[in-house]
């Protein structure tokens, strides 16, 4: 027998943004069902680098990142468990004059959004990070950025949502969704959900769901290749990136150094990513140049995930252009972790008020209207 | 011009224990030149591990009754010469699609294979008990390795604890080596051994050897105590005593300076996992195993499995299965194979399976140890995670599955990546939830199979 659920809002996808939306919607007294094909917070939300970073984002994302940052301070208290959020600051290194000029230009632009960045000269950087193995010309420090444990954030939001009365359904892949005129009817495994509103927070699968409503968008899968060492004495006091994005590293309080290395292998049909040896070894080589003391370390695990990437590397956020009541939030292109909490709020605002104070126009799904269905976005090196 | 279609297929065998060695022998006999990857410097596997060059001792001392088998396997590669491409000291640390990633002599390498036989062996199954991380506590396998490879005992006065046929063997070896035995404790009861004695007669020679070891240690004044209910190691910087409770609940204390303790074996199946082989839960040995048909095929057409790496069977089974699996591979390649040899191997393997079934029944899983282990005891020493932490997390944070438990507690995220702690954690999780280990799943495998040094990428 197929179970039936009738709710105000159905959310497809169980990542951080989806579960944060469920929490916010329950706060407004709406009934909510989250339909997650595997486990909540275990996809791109749960296996990413763990950077809580504003610096270096596309300027169009900065207002959202700024607002989200205010939520991170209270996140452990809100969720009732420690998400290991630490304001370690984020340093972006310049290895050429051109990099330096880019950092300075970004600093000026970011100021407009209230993000204060500090330029560090070569001496100051090397004094701050005496273990650096490469000559850098300077850096930009974002003191309010930091890091957190991605594995706990999404599941903690899901549990909070459930405590607040949301229906959280894991291992419930959605097989079809239609607009009925009065709302939506969503078919999932063993379950039919009727809802007035539908939120598409399906990550890499967001494009497919959008297509069901006549909105074709070019989402390609993205699988960052991640590595972690055994615990080392604590020395990487900041979260580190470089201009160009081909090295990024942080160290947990436990001592493990976590760093990125290119992009992994993908099974697009099954929707999962795996690290590859070539990318891992390249990442180790590049990171070793920057952090020579890692020569003493062993890599104990490599992993990857599966996120949706847009051609312009910024997500789709906002109402559908074809179907009233449908709202999209997907395609975070490998850097949605920091944004998760605010996306939840924005989605709830869009459902309850039909608008949000956050400027989401740049993320409209209509920006791809005239684009041919793209095949593959270039796999640029980016800090995830 | 090179005719690619006619080149010999690239066949890789991982593991130079009894299974892998018999596999390469069979492949070489068919005119192929297999590549044999092995972590150890010398062939033999764990069971027939050789001492380092220059530290040899008589095979009879090292391997007892099994010396002729060990010697035959050790000499096998010398006999085959360059008909096998043997790569010792080489770790196969990842497998993706048709590529194996290797680390040897300080450098990384890759091999593309057409077909691979994974003969990756087994390791001790470790279960936590009070004080098990005290310096001086070893697994039975480690206690054996100390004897075989280093020629030393793990202590002067040793208590041995087990849940399988390894226990009388190690006790016998330690006695022969002149070590003082403090106690020989079997945490499984005696009754099923008597009940399944008939089944054990499917391998009369093996049964007799087991009885011989048992008689030897009994006559030496150390009868095996069966049905041990709980264990506790005393000592701070070093083992001082082992306290144990017998089947009637009476507590005993024996002074000792080392403990050898492990509880059966677990398959080292990480490469099969990375290869994408389908796994099923084996309710008898209570572990996830890669599916294998009786002829040695995995669920993946070009990946074959032989020996303890797929299911625990012991060294004799591994030899048979290594040859049998290689013959399957040859038949799959369209090469002629000797049907009567295949039939003979299948008969022997069937007989071994009946023996194994009786053996597993004679040594049931000692789950009571996990119920007895206190909350403040470590289960994962890489990450310092206690049993109580797992129990609490399962209840309070709704971690109902192993990867969830890993995400919340870091279990399986340390150096061993769950090889040591994973099965114990799954049992603890299942017991806490009043569920079954099959229902709590298994840790997702990720490369590397064992830690790889960053500096070697330079």
From TrEMBL, chain A:
Keywords from the named record: Oxidoreductase
Residue ranges annotated for the FAD dependent oxidoreductase domain, each copy included: 8-350
Highest taxon above the source species: Bacteria
Pfam families membership: DAO
Gene3D superfamilies per UniProt: D-Amino Acid Oxidase, subunit A, domain 2 (3.30.9.10), FAD/NAD(P)-binding domain (3.50.50.60)
PANTHER family: FAD-DEPENDENT OXIDOREDUCTASE DOMAIN-CONTAINING PROTEIN 1 (PTHR13847:SF287), SARCOSINE DEHYDROGENASE-RELATED (PTHR13847)
One function term, GO molecular function aspect: oxidoreductase activity
GO CC aspect terms: cytoplasm
Protein name as it appears in the record: FAD-binding oxidoreductase
UniProtKB/TrEMBL annotation, chain B:
All residue ranges annotated as the FAD/NAD(P)-binding domain in the record: 11-318
Transmembrane spans: none
BFD-like [2Fe-2S]-binding domain residues: 378-431
Transport as UniProt keyword: no
Molecular-function annotations in GO: oxidoreductase activity
Keywords annotated in UniProt: Oxidoreductase
Record's keyword annotation contains Oxidoreductase: yes
Ranges in coiled-coil conformation: none
CDD domains: GlpA-like_Fer2_BFD-like
PANTHER family the record matches: ANAEROBIC GLYCEROL-3-PHOSPHATE DEHYDROGENASE SUBUNIT B (PTHR42949:SF3)
Name of protein: FAD/NAD(P)-binding oxidoreductase
Organism this protein belongs to: Siculibacillus lacustris
